[in-house]
Amino acid sequence: MANPQQILDQLNAQHNLIAQLQQQLAQLQNNQQPGPPGPQGPPGDDGETPIVQVAPPQIDVAKPKIFSGDGKELSGFITACKIYLSLKMAGRLQGDQITWILSYVQGGAAESWKENIMEMIENGEDEAPSVTEELFDSLRNNFGDADEESTAVGKLRLIEQGSKSAEEHVQEFKRIARDSGYEGRALIEEFKRSLSGRIRKALMESENPPTTIRSWYDRSMKLDRQWRQAKAEEEYYRRGQAKPQIRTHTPSNTFVRPQPQRRDPNAMDVDSAAGPSRGPIKCYKCGKLGHMAKNCWSKAPTRDVRTLDVDEQRDYWKRMFEEEQKNLKE
């Protein structure tokens, strides 16, 4: 058994070992070298994310139709040009856009106008259009309606819905009203007048009649759709409930040949087995039985066939036929 002095020496040795290990650990922490970089993780709040620009998908836009100077087509031509320019040529120079517009002006009176504009641009004249709006203004001044507002007012007073749907009528009314200068109550009255009687009456007699032109547009289209749908359903159910009409054919008063009576194929043909049935031979010269007219010894004159009755004539011609057949065989 160890004495107390030995135990005390062991404790001191362990204490010194622990102290040495702590010193070595402290030195390693102070002299630590950076290791190889590890895999990069996702960026945090301070990370920089590269910006990737994604091009928007291309939109198919219809190009304008060729403009040849017809004033009725001018508004649609300008609208089509503006839509295409805003979606396809937004970043192009004004000069390029003007040249593109002029490429769709061809033929008729518009051809000479285009040549004049091109010459003004090439010569750098002050009156040459420098932006697209100036080019559109020149088109309106040369080919537009001289009194566009008066023309639109006249059309607005004459337009009627008729058999068109409310959607079609509203779009046409809006297009004309845009150039008429009408607004407010005057525009509402013209629209009410142009509607079909059933829609106008239904809206005016409703619990809350429309008060603005927009509400008149929306409610007239909604009411017209409901009416057309109800009419289509009613027509569908009416056709489904209709009873099919059976056509009866009245036969004409024509002669129908009677069909011969069918005979039993297994029945015995007694008549055929017995041979043709013949009555007694009768002379049509003397009228006696037992001989034919050619063998008649009587001096009586031959009877006129026309004096015979129906049965006698039938028998007469039958006998004559049989005699002819008999003579041919002989």
From TrEMBL:
InterPro entries: Retrotrans_gag_dom, RTL1-rel, Znf_CCHC, Znf_CCHC_sf
Phylogenetic lineage: Eukaryota, Fungi, Dikarya, Basidiomycota, Agaricomycotina
Protein name: Transcriptional regulator family: Zinc finger, CCHC-type
Pfam families linked: Retrotrans_gag, zf-CCHC
Keyword Zinc-finger (UniProt): yes
Keyword Metal-binding in record: yes
Domain (CCHC-type): residue spans on this chain: 282-296
GO molecular function: nucleic acid binding; zinc ion binding
Assigned keywords, A-Z: Metal-binding, mRNA processing, Zinc, Zinc-finger
Domain of life where this protein originates: Eukaryota
Gene3D superfamilies the record matches: Zinc finger, CCHC-type
GO biological processes: mRNA processing
Region of interest (Disordered), ranges: 27-52, 248-276
